[in-house]
Amino acid sequence: MTIAVLAVDLAALALVFWIIWYFWGSKRAAGQANVWESGVQEIYVRVKGGYDPDRIAVQAGRPVRLLFNRQETAACSEMVQFPDFGISRALPTGETVAIEIPAPKAGEYPFSCQMGMLRGTLVARHDGRPAAGAPGGEAA
Ligand SMILES: [Cu+2]
Fold it and tell me: Which CA distances in Å does 132 have to 40, 71, 126, 139?
């Protein structure tokens, strides 16, 4: 029993490392959230002089989890806010902060730092595809 629990823990840990490697190690084109079996769409957003990616495509009507990781100490980026969802969160340097958006309707939802200098857009579409012309639109 204990060994089984340990095995599950190790598997979960391995998955976490794999996710980190996959998103940060393998420089993908960025933009499209990954959809897990749970139905949650998840994507890492690096915060360093801006948001990377700064245009995030997701499927409308499904839960979204954005994992912000701030890799700088500049005060400018210490908060991120999603005015459409009433979300405002601190982003401590070096920590990953999960922001959950239950099920966005189709539309474009801007997000920004507290002073609006750094900007990004969450794009929720029924087909989950980014708008034409969006950078890095194709799924890797
Ligand atoms: Cu700012």
Answer: 24, 30, 14, 13
Spatial separation of the C-alpha atoms in residues 23 and 17, rounded to whole Å: 10
> Quick one: pLDDT at residue 32?
82
In this predicted structure, the answer to whether residue 116 has a pLDDT above a threshold of 70 is: yes
Cα of 15 vs centre of ligand 1, distance in Å, is: 33
- For residue 36, the CA-to-ligand 1 centroid distance in Å is 32
- In total, the chain counts a number of residues equal to 140
The average confidence (pLDDT) of the chain is: 83
Is 0.85 topped by the overall pTM? no
**What is d(CA 49, CA 104) in angstroms, rounded to the nearest whole number?**
27
- Find the 76 Cα to ligand 1 centroid distance in Å: 3
